[in-house]
Design goal:
This protein has 251 residues and is mainly α. The protein is 77% helix and 0% strand. The chain has one domain (15-250). The protein has eleven helices and no strands. The two termini are 35 Å apart.
Length: 251
Amino acid sequence: MENVNEAVKDVQQEVQAARRPWYYTLRQTRVLLVIYLVVLALFGGLAFLVHVNPLLPVDVVITREFQENQSPWLSTFMVAVSYLGNTLWAFIVLIALTALALWLFRLRLEALVLIFINLTNALLNVLVKVLIARPRPSQPLVDVLQHATGASFPSGHVMSYVAFWGTLFTFSLILFRGKHWWRTTLLIISGLFVVLVGFSRIYLGDHWASDVLGAYLLSGLWVWVCLWVYTRLKERHVLASTHLAHSNQVE
C-alpha cells in the first residue's frame, strides 16, 4: 500500500511540475475564443440549410466517395472508432474514471469542468436534434453499414468525442509543458479520436458529412466557451490547493 501511495505522489509531483502558469493558459485561450466566435455564425447557417433542405446532393457525393473502396478491415476499424459512442455506459465510466484521475492528481477544477462539458454537450446535442429533425442517410442513396436511430443533425458521436477527447487534448496542450511521455501519448490518442470519429460516421452511413461538420462546429464552440469560463475560475484559483495558489501568485 505504501508503494502505491508513493507512486501516486510521484505522478502528482511530475504533473504539478509540468503545469503552465495560469496567465499563460488565459492568454492562449483568448486567441482561440476569437476564432470560435466566427464558428457560431457558420454553424447557424449550416443548421438552417439542412433544416430547409434535409437532403443535400453534396452529402450524397461525399458519402459515396468515402464508401467507394470498402473492405472488411476498414469497416471493422471504423466500427471500433465509433464503439464508445455506441456504448453509453462505457463512455460514462470512461468520463468518471478520467475525472477521478484528474481529481487525484490535484486537478480538481479540471475534473469538474470535464464532467460539466460532457453533460451539457449531450443535452445540447439532443436539443439541436429535436429542433432540426433531419432524417438519417438511407438506402439506396448510400450504404448504411451501421444502423442508428434518432435524428441525424448534428452527429452525437462527433459531439461527444469532441467534448471528451477534445477537452483532454486541450488540457494537455495548455496546462502542461515539456516532452513527458504521458502528455505526448494523451495528445496523440485524443487527437486521433477527435479526427477519426468524423470519418467513421460518414463511412458507416450513419451521418451525412454536413452532420459531422455541424457537430464539430457546435461542440467545438461549446467546449471553448466552457474553457473560457474555466480560465476565469482558474485565474481566481478556484479549487486550487493553498500551495498551488501561492506558487501561481509567485510566478
